[in-house]
Structures are given as C-alpha cells and as structure tokens.
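Notes from the 1:1 (GR / supervisor)

We went over the backlog. Supervisor wanted to see one worked example end to end before approving the batch request, so GR pasted a single chain during the call. The sequence is below; no edits were made to it. Supervisor asked that the structure be written out right there so they could see what the output format looks like.
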Amino acid sequence: MIRATNIVKYRGEARVLDGASIEVRKGQVAAMVGPSGGGKSTLLRCINGLEEFHEGEVAVGTLKLKGSEIPSRHTLLQLRHTVGMVFQQFNLFPHMTVLKNVMSGPVYALGKTTDEAETTAKKWLGRVGLAEKHDAKPGQLSGGQQQRVAIARALAVNPAAILFDEPTSALDPKMAAEVMRVIDDLADDEQLQVAMVIVSHDIAAVKRIADVVYLLEKGKVVYSGPAAEAFAPGGPASALE
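Structure output shown during the call:
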C-alpha cells in the first residue's frame, strides 16, 4: 500500500534522509521511532507529498512520487484523497464548528452533498467519542478533544492510509492517553483496513499497537522488524524506552 524506496532529501548541504525505505501493507500499523532529528517526520511528510525529496520513489497504491520531479496538481489531489494526515498541532479551522470541520473533506475534496458529509462526519465523531460536541468550536475543546476531531476529519475522506505525526506531543499525559486510546481502537479494527504509520516518542503506545517498527537514525533506517524484537532487552530500539 505504502512503499518509500531509498528516499534521499537535502536541506542545504545536510542530508536529512539518507536512503530511507519503509513498506506498509493494508491493515498494517507501522511506527517510526528514533532520536529527535533522525528524519522520521520528514519521511512522513515526503510520503504525503508535503515535502519534496531528491532521490528515490514513494508509491501509495498506484500513485507515485519520484525524487527531483515536481508532482502534478492532479497527483497531489489524488494523494490527499488517499492518505489522511494527523499533525501535532491539530490544524482545525477555528471559525467552524466541530461538525463543519469534519465535513470539510467530504464536501470540498470528495464533492459529497451536505447531507452525505454530515452523516459521515457524525459517524466518525461518534467513533472518536465526541458525538456530543458537534456544535462546539475548536477553541471550546481541550487539546485532546481537538486532536480527536482531527483524527475524525482525516478518516472522513475514507482514506486508504492515515499518517500520524507525533499526535500526542503537544498534549499533557491525560489528554495524550485519550488520543492514544482512539488510535489503539482504530488499530484493532479489522474492518477498517487502512495502512497506518505513526511517528511517536510514546514507546509504550508503539509497543502496544505497532505491527512493525522502523528505527531511524541520521536519516537512515537502521532497523525494521517486529516491535517485540525492537524493544526487547538489548534490542535495537531498547535504549529509547
């Protein structure tokens, strides 16, 4: 479903991604872990076409992005429909209600009618535990609630994949636990069948939900394999706990 192959990216003369490769199948949960500055979020943003890269290839289903090639607007639009993204800072529209925020993707990206979009939005808001917050504005919600709205918004376009970029890093421990419970629930849903990639420093959560772990250091994937192996005593990622 998602395949990033030998991705190289420079910032100035710095090589921030150095031949990084990951592969995530439909229904699989992959986690990218490692020290800060290792290239995790950069690789995630390359997969979603939010950052250009200089060498390698990203394939999401039949869509492809190639290093040093500027993707067409059509390709980027198709990619946005295929891959949902949940950011650190929620990125909700402050002037819209919670319901309108979640409806925005189905209406503007998918061309759904208002009634169709509202039905979809209410379904996903219920799924993330916010059915009673339809008419609230983002500023009336806690950080954890805002992030759950952002997850509902990402899912409302029926993506084949969803990317989480440090979804709990801006939250206190209680709110972070709320958000991770939602992600845990989605990861356990055998009917949802989306490919999920999460960048997180919450190692306890990663150990719970990830099928496969990619350890990035200095722009390289230095380990890929099962979470149990990665975090076993003396394992390649055990120092992160």
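Supervisor's comment: The chain has eight helices and ten strands.
Batch request approved.
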